[in-house]
Amino acid sequence: MTAPPKDNLENHPQLPDNRVLHPLFGNFCTTETFNLKTHVGGSLHTHYEAHLDDPAKKTWTVTKVVTVTEDSFHPWKRKSTTGSQVLKSKMNFRDAVTMLGNLEKDHKEKPVYEALYPDAPVLGYLHYRAFAEREGYVYDTKGTPHARPNPRVLPLGCNFYQSDVDNANTHVLRPEDEFDNNGPQSKLPNTHFLLDNFTAAAHRDDFQTSLNGTRAMALLDRFVDQVEQAKDYLKEYCEKYAAMGYGGLIDDADNALRLAESTLRQLRAYHVNTTEYDNFLTQCRITTYVLHAEGLYDLMNKGKGDFNSNEALFQSRVTQALELFKKIDSSEEGAKTLQNMIVQTPAPAVPNAIGTFIDSYRIARPKYGTPPAIAPKGPRP
Question: Model's pTM, two decimal places?
């Protein structure tokens, strides 16, 4: 009988892992900018960008951006025009950042181009490589990104420079339970992409653009504070509802979330896309009504308080929750699931997702400048 072959790498070659990790912390990244030395009569600057083009399908577009400035002896008379060209759309994230890497490498290898400030270290997470490493990728010796199976594990079948591994280990922020694209944070709106875009504004010469970015960051700080305030009110209600007389905390939470809605409207005035935040805030408001309904239902079951009064308020909260829920899921099945959840939950509890959103923002925020002072919270009147 012929002996079975040894189980070695020759018989079972380990191919590189081509999985795609969908970004959690942003929807835009860029290459460095390059000046064409041979351009006569001014300057010609080129860089390449990648942005999320379909949030549902998680696909990306790569764009070439060219800025031409006419030469002049008087700086205030110089004119610049910027144009963009789509190179490829509907790509997965890994292919998009691979394309950016190849384009940047190509420009660095041609003597007619020179890289301009800000360079990759200054761009930080705006630069495609640090952006990808933050999302759980590591670059091999050929400059190709590979998704890691875990923040502490390297993909199989590739060779890596230790310096690149060290950089990836420094930059990675993806939580361990997000490496299958199905963790809790993948279902939350991220804050990093806004912070990254404001950092980009700080690198531009346009004073008004930079100032608008600073104002918008202050508004985003306020928005997160308001969501956190609502979470604190809800947490207090969940801890005290059984003692009765704490329904006003629900109104306090709802008011804080309405103020957060107003903050988002102000953010949109600075041309910030708040779609994900609007959806998240709607879910927070639904949660507020659901938690109150769950508390009231538990009190009615235990025979506490005035049944008729509690039942009327219970029905009102369920109606409010269902009306908002239609903005997210208009199906009859979804509404039924929400109603069943309310009467089957033993006691109200604030979802962890709200705290995760706030915590992830608090971790990222210091990297983008000193946050404004937050007044300490005093005792409730």
Answer: 0.56
